[in-house]
Specification:
By secondary structure, the chain is α/β, with parallel strands linked by helices. It is about 25% helix and about 30% strand.
Length: about 70
């Protein structure tokens, strides 16, 4: 069976934001939207979402995920 080759995309393409009317954070990337209670959880869910589209995001730490927060929406 052939292994699927994933296109690598940089973590800068992911925009993490605080959701104003809910508890938690959201992440946007390549027309995917994910939610999580922490920025790191939202990013980890985004990794799974973009993998379904044939792309791959690098793993990051919790501190790096906090630095990716854009603003409140």
């Amino acid at each position: 069976m052939k292994q699927k080759i994933f296109k690598k995309i940089p973590q800068k393409t992911v925009r993490i934001f605080k959701i104003s009317n809910r508890k938690g954070y959201g992440a946007l990337c390549m027309n995917n939207l994910t939610e999580g209670t922490t920025p790191a959880q939202a990013y980890m869910r985004m990794i799974k979402a973009v993998k379904r589209n044939g792309c791959e995001l690098p793993n990051i730490t919790t501190e790096e995920a906090k630095k990716c927060i854009v603003s409140k929406i």
